[in-house]
Structure formats: C-alpha cells, structure tokens
Amino acid sequence: PGSVSAAFQEYLQHLGLQDFPCGLGSWNKSRLNARRSLRAEPAGLEEALPPGEESPEALLELLRDQHSPWALPPQCSPQDRLLREVAVLAPELLRGSGVFQAVKSLRILDKGVEEVDEGLLQFQQLEELILSANHISRVPSGHLPRTLKVLELCCNAVSDLQDLCARPPPELQHLGLGHNRLCGPSQEKHLTVDFWPNLVSLDLSFNSLTDLLELVSQLSTLQNLHVLVLQGNPLALIPTYRGFLVDSLPKLAILDDIHIWPEERQQFHGLARQPELLRSGARVVVSIGEMKGLPSPEDFQQLNVGPEGPVITYSYCVTYEF
C-alpha cells in the first residue's frame, strides 16, 4: 500500500473483524437487531439459541484459546485482541466508520508506506501513531489527528520538518525521527516550544545534524523535555558533546539512553558557559598497513635495465569512501 489508509484497510482484513467468529453472520444473526451486552443477557441463553448460532461466550473462547485456529499469534498487540473481542460482543460498534473511533493506537511497520494521507483524520481518538521502517519523506501536519500524543517515524526518509511543523498536534509528547535524513543547520528552528509545547521525549538519532550550539539553543525552549537521543549525528563526535548538553539542558533526565545522575550534572557544571570548547572541525588520519593485489616497487628496482632499455612507470589511484 502507498498510503497509511490503504495499509490500515489491509490491517483490518488481517484481523478479520467481519468474519467468523467476529462480526455479524449466521452464527449470531438473532442478535442483529438486539444491542445488548454479555452481562445483560439472561441466564440459560445457550439453551434458547436458535439452531446453528453460538453464544458470545463460546465465540470469545474461540478467540482466546491459544489452540483455536481463530486465535491471534502471541506477538499481537492488546489492541488487536480488544478489537476482535468488541467485534464479538458488540459488532455494530465496528461497522462503517465506527472502527475508526475505536482505534487509539495505530502501528504500521515496514509496509512500504510512502504517503501520510488525510484519511488519518478519521481516527478522531488516535493517540499513538507508529510508522517506522517505511518510505515516508513528507509528513503534512494537516493530515495528523489533533489527539496524537506519540508520533514515531523511525527509519524513514524525512529530510525536512517544515510540513510537519505547519500545524503539529498540540498534545504531542514523543516525536521519533531517528534514522532519517535530517541535515543541519536548517532544521533546528523547527525544534522549539512554539511547535512542541508538551514534548517530553525527542529522538533525532542517526541523522546528519552538525550544529550543536544552534540545536541546544532551540531545544532549551522545550521546558518539558526529559528524554533526548542524538547519538549517530556528526555533532555527537565533539569531545565535550555530552557534558555540554547535560549542563545546557538542566531538566533533561536521559541522554542517549543513559540516565543523567546528579553527580554527572555536578561534574559538568559551568560547561554550558564555555562554547569555545566546542570544536567545529575534526581531523581524520588514515594509515594503510597493507595493500594486496598491486606489484611491489621493490621488484622493479631489482631489474637490470641498460641505458637504452625501456622505462616503465606505474601509477595508482586509491579512493576511500566514508
């Protein structure tokens, strides 16, 4: 599927919410016009069931028994199980657009999704959206439900945050952009409290961010930020990188998956006031210990070549890609 909406429809087909033992069919057709919960059903219902129909208890058992052919795999999410059980107890709630109201967490991983389409706005209760390991390069904020609290876009192709920050979800608490294509210094301006007033956790790992001073200047406006991941960026190679961040962001609790203890904060106290310690460049020395497959110059020196003999010159070009 090319869009999130198409991937969601594929997900629904996988869950089989309209197929036995879920949904409405010959196995429970007498309940088609009766909206009553399992608790409200009278005792002895199983004996009163029409021939060929199953009680809600029996249908639920088919979903929950791990040996049942209709049971979900153990790695399925709690939401998968909840939707299937709702489709047994109250299938009318998931008919039509009702299914969109029941989904609070949507996980679409490695499905080839390229487009975050406006169909997402149908999820009016969505709080968690995880789209990791797809091919998304653009995230229009106008297509994101305003109820979102978690947005995870790890391992995609996002290179610019302008579309995402046009009108971002105001209650977002976690933003995951690790393993994308963000390049400094133009992206730091989108990482401020003006766009993310409630952000608690931010993952920018393994991008191409280089300007630590500018990034810290913007992140310091995020008063609720407690978790930050920057490892894998060129700026993380700066010798005073961790100490400078620890001292510059006093409310930060975890940096690059490592807790910041009071002793560490005290150790780096005052480093934020010494930006001159941040080097803007680095030198890499490459030493070649051995090369194979090339004739050795010493072999030519041993040749007895007369004054009128031919002169043979060898030259080599060696290219390294980093």
TrEMBL record:
Any Pfam family hit: LRR_8
UniProt GO cellular component terms: cytoplasm
Lineage: superkingdom: Eukaryota
Keyword Disulfide bond: no
Alphabetical keyword list: Leucine-rich repeat, Repeat
Entry-linked InterPro entries: Leu-rich_rpt, Leu-rich_rpt_typical-subtyp, LRR_dom_sf
Name of this protein: LRC43 protein
Encoding gene, per UniProt annotation: Lrrc43
